[in-house]
Amino acid sequence: MVDFTTNSPLTAWKNAAGIAGNIFALGLFVSPIPTFQRIIRNQSTEQFSASPYLYALLNCLITMWYGTPLVSIDNVMVMTVNSLGAVFQLVYIIIFIVYVEKAKKVRMFGLLLVISGLFALIVIVSLKIANREIRRISVGLLSCVSLVSMFASPLLIINLVIRTKSVEYMPFFLSLSTFLMSTSFLLYGILNFDVFVYIPNGLGTILGIVQLALYYYYRRRSTADGNEPLIMPHS
What we know:
single chain, mainly alpha, 9 helices, globular, disordered C terminus
C-alpha cells in the first residue's frame, strides 16, 4: 500500500476524481424528479414501481457503510456520494408511500423496514469482526456485489434500444452522467488501490461507453432515415 501522506500529487488527483464523481452522481440522483413531480401532480403513483428506489437505497447504504472509517481507510468520497444517494432514494420512497394505493402502503412500509433491518444487521455483524482487514473485505464484497447487480437495469435498457432501434428509452444526459460518474470513481478506486471501488465502476464505465455509442449510432440513423422518435405511452 502506498503511503498517501508522502504522495500529495497522487492524493490531489484521487480527491479530484472523487469530487467529480460526487458532482456527476448528483445528475443521476435528480433524474427521477420529473417522475415524482408527475406523481405529486396526479396524486397517484400510477403504474410506476418503487422497486428500483428501494434497491438503490439498500445499495447506497451498504456502499456508504463501506466508505466509513470504521470499515475502510481514506474512502470519504465513497461515503459522501452514497450518503447523498441514500437521502434522495429515501425521499423518493416516502413520496411513493404517500401517494401509492392504500392497499400497497403497508407493503411498501414493510419493505422499507426490511431494508433498514438488513442494513442494521450488516453494520452490527461487521462491527463484531475484530480484524479490520477481514471486516473491510467482507463489507467490500457485499458492496461490490450490490453495485454490480445494479447494472442489470442498464443492460435491459441497452437490449431495449437494440430491439426498438430507438434511443427514446435511453436519455442522453442520464447515460452521460452514468459514464462520467463511473469513470470518476474508477480513477478514484485505482488511485486509492481499492479493488472494491474500481472493479464495479470499471464495469459501469464500459456500460456507459456502450450506451453512448448506441445513442450516437441510433440517433444518427434515426435522423438520416427521417424517422420520428418513439414516444413511450403514458399509463
